[in-house]
Design brief:
With 363 residues, this protein is an alpha+beta fold. 37% of the residues lie in helices and 26% in strands.
Length: 363
């Protein structure tokens, strides 16, 4: 089965408008319309065409249909040998040759295999469909209808990699279903891709081409009980005294405020670094720059030793069709996943992260 046979309307609709206009022109359709209308017209036209005709029109966009803005989680095991054969033998229809029929009324939250597309001898895509919620239609009455989602899984049997392109909680379920196809059922382990980088998101930025950390989310590494109002005032007075010292060059006033604060805060509290004391009681702390690398700012470098990262945004460049383009990812520490933010994300972009961060982090 070719990608043109495995795509859905949702795959068409998420393409950038420029691509929708290009495909509309190839199909001799009106290209001057809203993105959704363009996608709907394209889908309606494609459904009446043969597999060969669809392939001819869409082949130039194959690197985009299963990518786009999506969360990705990676899983591995000792061996995926026999997975493809297991899929073919356990399903009533060969998903590499045709879509597997399903009953809409029976579709539930548990993903079922819909189709598969071979990339080469050892790698391929699997596409799962499942119900992911409901939507309400308001008229004279309220009608509640189920909504469905199609998730893409990239498999590489040579390197024993399962890449699930879906939100982390759904990725876990889908990975388990993939594992069940192997004759001797295996356990897939989620890859903690941050471990080789010392759990530092900025090290991932260094690994990627022209990578830069432009936003960080973190929480204080040291827990300190909430201060009394008097202790809060003492900390504010220290910061104010430092500011006044640079304005009036009065070292005596600064020393007086420091001594008064020391008396208020006490020796036990002052065993903690002063920056850690300032951060006490704060929840998630976000720092962001627009153009520069966050690591080049003094405030980030001042706070960094006292913060534990919970996530971060990295920008990097990838060359696609001889054009260097910038893309952005959100690295999730707790879910061990990466979110590709742009709907212009292509297979080349995901492969760049897969190769440098997941498969070969130490190269």
């Amino acid at each position: 089965m070719k990608i043109a046979e495995a795509i859905t309307f949702a795959d068409i609709a998420k393409l950038p408008k420029k691509n929708l206009e290009e495909i509309s022109t190839l199909l001799a359709l009106d290209s001057n319309d809203r993105a959704f209308n363009l996608a709907r017209n394209i889908w309606g036209d494609l459904r009446s065409k043969s597999s060969e005709e669809r392939d001819r029109v869409l082949s130039g966009y194959y690197n985009k249909f299963f990518a786009g803005n999506t969360s990705v989680s990676w899983f591995t095991c000792d061996s995926l040998e026999g997975l493809k054969e297991g899929i073919i033998s356990k399903e009533d229809y060969n998903p590499f040759e045709q879509k597997i029929p399903y009953d809409t009324a029976q579709l539930g939250p548990s993903p079922i295999l819909r189709s598969a597309v071979e990339i080469d001898a050892s790698s391929y895509y699997l596409r799962f469909i499942y119900q992911d919620g409901t939507r309400r239609i308001y008229g004279e009455d309220i009608e509640v209808l189920p909504t469905t989602k199609t998730a893409t899984v990239y498999i590489n049997e040579t390197v024993n990699l399962v890449e699930v392109r879906e939100k982390p909680e759904d990725a876990e379920k889908i990975a388990g279903i993939v594992a069940s196809y192997v004759n001797q059922q295996i356990t897939l382990d989620k890859i903690n891709f941050l471990a080789p980088f010392g759990s530092e998101i900025e090290s991932i930025a260094d690994k990627l081409e022209n990578g830069r950390l432009y936003e960080s989310k973190a929480f204080p590494e040291t827990f300190i009980d909430t201060f009394s109002e008097k202790e809060n005032d003492a900390i504010v007075n220290i910061l104010g005294a430092i500011d006044q010292y640079y304005e009036y060059d009065d070292i005596d006033a600064l020393q007086q405020q420091l001594e008064e604060a020391k008396s208020t805060l006490g020796d036990e509290l002052l065993t903690s670094p002063f920056i850690a004391i300032i951060l006490a009681g704060m929840g998630n702390l976000g720092l962001k720059v627009d153009e520069n690398d966050l690591r080049h700012t003094p405030f980030y470098n001042l706070l960094r030793p006292y913060l534990q990262a919970s996530g971060g945004y990295v920008k990097f460049t990838v060359e696609i069709n001889n054009v260097v383009q910038e893309f952005s990812i959100n690295v999730g520490v707790k879910p061990k996943s990466i979110y590709f933010k742009s709907n212009k994300t292509t297979e080349e972009v995901i492969n760049e992260v897969r190769e440098k961060v997941i498969l070969f982090p130490n190269d």
